[in-house]
């Protein structure tokens, strides 16, 4: 690969410098043993899955217009990527290739007169933009999308260590910087094309992402990544020599290939690493939204009561989603690095304090979904051995998964007792209608079609409780519902728990 000298930055460098959290997460030990071929296979798998996911979103968010109006701009290289099913959409496509520069040379440097379209509709459906053959950007595959619904950029290239890598971003500043980088290339090769393209792009300014939209992209990406893996490449192919092989037919077929990667470890690692990157992508805008919301809430005395109520709901929704993403990230981290699970520090903590901190939050979650939540707790709660931060995350995730999987009017009973040298925490849900409809999404997640909810699957949740020194057992009881039993080691004051004597409910 021709590396950038700083004067001609690649889009990989733009995203690498501006979007560090979204870069693939690799441990030093893994980088030492992972071959370039495996890295290339993983990056290409993520790339083609992202193409399919973005196309799904375009078709869902951009209904075919009844007139000739343009719905967005797509700038890509080395060829158009989307399949014929997206043709009804009115998208103007610009393709950056070094072959376009060769065509320019054949015209004996006689540049055509500048043609300034009077409107974006005047632009051709597909336009070629030239890249210098020595331009490092010519060795990358990228796609920048600007519409009135969302903005997005993704790139398949090589990082600073020459490792094949896939990166993406919804950040408007990063997307703007990517456009500026592409504009600088046109300034070098064919400045006559800048003005009409710049005028067109001005109608689709980069947008701040809706976190629900980013979550939907995440689900689609994981679905395509899991069910449509790209076959292992046989040799390294330079992108600027494969334009003909990356036409729309190649792309349409790419997401349908069903040849799996045979090694289980190589098949699971890309998904786990991508999931880690996606949790960062989702948490970043949510954290910003929550921060701005809390700034407004500090001025509640100047706000209408209804506005305050809505801001509090926004704060609560953001907090729950951030916690959910943190738990998924932590689970992915432990699945990719088992040593992190084995070395988790366990200390004596007060179970009473755990419940005091979390029961109000669990009650709010249940109340919003019209779920009855009953607690049968002993008069004196014992000390247990666990990791405070991890225990809060796992219990909250499990409780949330239960409340979200029950239909309105459902009931959950939580009972605490002791069993020998262990604490016994039982959660019984009386309706498993929605729980039984859960579908697996890859190695870590479960998807609920009726609600669109994502949650950790039971195997991963069991691994988390094992890391906490405990155990999770799940039983399906006919006519009684689903019973989850959690065992945790008691601390120094074990044996203080007695039979449950009071009920706390909403």
TrEMBL record:
Pfam families: HisKA. InterPro entries: HATPase_C_sf, His_kinase_dom, HisK_dim/P_dom, HisK_dim/P_sf, Histidine_kinase_KdpD. It is an enzyme of class 2 (transferase). The lineage of its organism: Bacteria, Bacillati, Cyanobacteriota, Cyanophyceae, Spirulinales. It catalyses: ATP + protein L-histidine = ADP + protein N-phospho-L-histidine. GO terms for cellular component: plasma membrane. SMART domains: HisKA. It comes from Lusitaniella coriacea LEGE 07157. Its EC number is 2.7.13.3. Residues 277-492 form the Histidine kinase domain. Keywords: Kinase, Transferase. This is histidine kinase. GO terms for molecular function: phosphorelay sensor kinase activity.
